[in-house]
């Protein structure tokens, strides 16, 4: 049976529940899930899920929104305050100090990576979510998390320095190369920098395949950059309803610019707090857009092609 593919989804967690997350309730008979981790909390939840349901594709990474929570190299002698002042920036000094005050002790990235592969290595099948983001700002509670009270958390003017985001991204690219694993990449408002980094760090390594998750770059850069540089069996573009097809007309133009063999479907939704029927409808929406943009005879043809693409992406 050919399954729907959700090549990029998440688990909802909260610092209030210690990263346990809600109960996992997705019917796997219809959908193959690639569940990404972004931080230490959802990694803890994903490990628990992966032990019980080994048919999911487990992704391991640090997403830009959480990159400040990790310290590089042998920085153990650097204090919490020194670390955060080095990786965060804001024109509002008082606000920066307030954010630092609520942040946890940073995690050593080397210990985090080593521990993950020692404990769970064989089940990690993708490096993700990793990437760069030139737009996001930190919330007042220090990092994106589910607020158990339901209260809204405002955004600050504090940002993670791009140099730190790049350093974390590079480290995970090194892991992908060493472990011969594909990567799922987040790129927002820094598409040129991301392309150059991927060309430098990943292009020389034929075993590493790339998924540009919920791709938001220009239609032109698909052909002039990515497809000109990377072979079609190594570069994929994840298409989601909530991001890629938010503007449907632009989304169709994007789909037409991407070879059918380079497409993946995704929801980018928390699969443990989103009803399974909603997840399925999101994927079906993308499948129909692929069928229409590529003038396929049926949605079944699109589903089969995406499934084949996913197998190539995972090298299975």
Automatic annotation (TrEMBL):
Keyword match Hydrolase: yes
Keywords: Hydrolase, Metal-binding
Matches recorded under PROSITE patterns: TATD_3
Pfam family, one: TatD_DNase
Binding site for a divalent metal cation 1: 129, 268
Record carries keyword Nucleotide-binding: no
Residues the entry annotates as binding a divalent metal cation 2: 186, 213
Superkingdom in the source lineage: Eukaryota
GO terms of molecular function: hydrolase activity, acting on ester bonds; metal ion binding
Annotated protein name in UniProt: TatD related DNase
Organism of origin: Eremothecium cymbalariae (strain CBS 270.75 / DBVPG 7215 / KCTC 17166 / NRRL Y-17582) (Yeast)
């Amino acid at each position: 049976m050919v399954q729907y593919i959700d090549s990029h989804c998440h688990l909802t967690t909260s610092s209030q529940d210690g990263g346990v997350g809600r109960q996992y309730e997705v019917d796997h008979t219809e959908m193959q899930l690639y569940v990404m981790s972004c931080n230490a909390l959802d990694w803890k939840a994903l490990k628990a899920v992966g032990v019980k349901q080994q048919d999911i594709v487990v992704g391991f990474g640090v997403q830009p929104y959480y990159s400040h929570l990790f310290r590089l190299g042998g920085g153990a002698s650097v204090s919490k305050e020194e670390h955060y002042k080095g990786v965060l920036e804001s024109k509002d000094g008082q606000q920066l100090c307030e954010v630092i005050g609520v942040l946890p002790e940073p995690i050593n990235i080397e210990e985090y990576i080593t521990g993950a592969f020692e404990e769970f290595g064989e089940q990690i099948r993708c490096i993700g979510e990793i990437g760069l983001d030139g737009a996001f700002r930190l919330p007042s509670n220090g990092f994106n998390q589910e607020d158990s009270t339901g209260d809204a958390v405002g955004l600050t003017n504090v940002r993670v320095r791009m140099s730190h985001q790049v350093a974390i991204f590079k480290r995970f690219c090194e892991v992908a190369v060493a472990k011969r694993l594909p990567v799922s990449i987040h790129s927002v408002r820094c598409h040129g920098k991301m392309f150059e980094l991927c060309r430098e760090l990943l292009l020389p390594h034929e075993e590493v395949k790339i998924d540009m998750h919920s791709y938001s770059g220009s239609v032109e850069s698909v052909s002039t950059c990515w497809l000109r540089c990377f072979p079609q069996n190594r570069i994929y573009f994840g298409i989601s309803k909530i991001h890629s097809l938010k503007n449907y007309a632009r989304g169709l133009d994007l789909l037409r610019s991407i070879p059918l063999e380079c497409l993946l479907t995704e929801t980018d939704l928390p699969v443990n707090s989103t009803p399974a029927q909603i997840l399925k409808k999101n994927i079906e929406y993308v499948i129909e857009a692929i069928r229409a943009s590529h003038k396929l005879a049926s949605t079944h043809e699109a589903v089969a092609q995406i499934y084949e693409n996913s197998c190539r992406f995972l090298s299975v």
